[in-house]
């Protein structure tokens, strides 16, 4: 901010955009909370037809979950690199994060197709419906995250490079990305393991 | 030296919008005041449409066995009346107040995210247009065994499952056609608008307060905005997911709410009212805030129990999440749950009562000036108490079971939402009229408006209590002559038309006063909060320099001292101070940086209706068009600097 600008900013000391992101994430918790609650309600009920346990492949999903978790690590590495003002490394780690996210998405698409071939479709029964809407909603979040990461990577190509200030900055995207990863830990546990 | 920095007109990719007047300046504006004004006009437009729908309903019910409307048309009209009034009239008109006043009350130059603010507004506009496009594109088919297809007509081609969209009635089987899809997706779009504004206001209040504006010095209206924003942020996700499920059920063959596939219709009711009850407080808390500003100003006393009113507001907001099932006493929920929710419903009356008594304490012994805003605020207290009392009667489960789906309920929630929310809103519209337009409204017309509305309102909704207790069923297009209900029904209809006349008086007053009204002094009410320390109409830059706040009701304390008896005595220096304030407000002494206008909010928002149509008609091309808008808008948004380049300008100069 320019010095002639007498307006005080951020009496809380938290950057305004970051604060906005935190508020946004708090509502995301309710989005996922509602979905998970519905899933749990229907999980205990009787329903006709094929079940998730008949079609899923835990080792496969575990590996793709591991890949998504690793992307959080690369995200942190990107953030560290930017704090050390190493633009080159920042870009590398950003791209790595986006790629890991994309691999996870590819895994999810593969998994969904497999399930479909085995007869576990969106409208097969109430369980399959909740399963697809819940995990699909998370997949959409991962997809948006990958787009954001690639956009950041693109911005990083400019001469000025990335900074920790200004519009859509790395910290902002990182918060979102970690959130999406944490949600997956919960989903994986609730949907596949319990 | 006065200088407003010209925004840099060239951005990297797109030309920056540059007009300052005319239609483009409004379309690209990110100024919270202009957005507030646009919110206000759009919401009032929808208020008129919702009002017309109500009049059509009342004409139908004025006579027993009337055939002015068919059953299908009646269903569509009451659904659209409810949906319009809640989502397109009261909520956005509250958003208009939030937008215009919030930055002024906390001494900020704008909200935290000006472009997001414009985005919420445009999403709201497109959402409303999308919902109403059902009259052109939508179809409401005739279910088997229901009314006949030829009775649907033009008016009937709108959503017809009630604003609450109960399942399975609102499902594809009983509501065929696309009209309920328009409803589900329309509300989804409107919800996005409200969610975005909620993030924006929460962040603004936490992070944009001026020097010395501690939380416990904020005006009560700001506090209520804060509470409403939290309610929006935490309740809208629930309805969003529930509406997803409805759309999936209707379009993609799932059975979330349909028993035939193992789904659960009562789950819809839970999810809907988990949102729906906080929604009630979303509608009423802004009015609480407005009244808490108006009463102390016109009673010329400080607000009685400021902290109690603030905490009661948050108490209401918090408990508001724990009473939803009292809307469902007639549904399949267990007796234990009924008892629990009956109790929590009684409990929520406590913080509400705290507020009422604090308002009474505020006017007690005050030097009351009965200007129009004060009349509406007093009317608000009276009408809201009636609505609140009939509300508490619903916590008695057996009585509620008896009254469910009768006009008693209709009477109750209109006393709360019309007698409460709308009276509060009119109070605010008159109170801040001079601030917004720099003109005074016509006091006589204002008072005529108030009395007509008060009489019309009570004639309309008062007799509904009796009608309901006598057993007239709501959402039903006729009643038989043998029921002897016609006397009160014709009174109700007359009352509805008196309300319509009062609204016309209001509109005449508004249009006339805005054009030819007397010039308003910048502090016409001798007010207490800092939005009155700046000239009227508010300059584009709000405050010439960031104000510093030393106490609650800071402006009042800078004008008045206390004598030994605790009476307010106007300081000798006050008149001089006011002159200086106006001078300073019009002539800022430092550079002012304002956020640049932007095309991208409206572009981004324009994508959503296309995505909505794409889902309804399962059309890939429409989805691609929608996505294209989102991409262009999002990309332009992300690469468009908001203020940074202005700084570069400064450095070059």
Question: Which features does this protein show?
Answer:
heterodimer, A: 194 residues, mainly alpha, Four Helix Bundle (Hemerythrin (Met), subunit A), elongated, B: 653 residues, Cytochrome C Oxidase, Chain A, two-stranded antiparallel ribbon, 1% strand
* Alpha-beta content class of chain B: mainly alpha
Shape of chain B: globular
Low-confidence parts of chain B lasting 5 or more residues at pLDDT below 50?
A: 5-13, 644-653
Structural class of chain A comes to: mainly alpha
**Which CATH class of chain A?**
Mainly Alpha
- Provide the succession of SSEs of chain A: HHHHHH
| Unreliable segments of 5+ consecutive residues of chain A | 1-6
**CATH class category name of the domain at 1-218 and 588-653 in chain B:** Mainly Alpha
- Assign a percent range to the helix content of chain A: over 70%
Radius of gyration of chain A: 20 Å
CATH architecture of the domain at 1-218 and 588-653 in chain B: Up-down Bundle
Describe the largest sheet of chain A.
none
Strand neighbour order, sheet with most strands of chain B: 1-2
What's the pLDDT, averaged over the residues of chain A?
88
Which architecture name of chain A does CATH use? Up-down Bundle
Give me the count of strands of chain A: 0
Number of helices, where a helix is a run of at least 4 consecutive DSSP H or I residues of chain B: 21
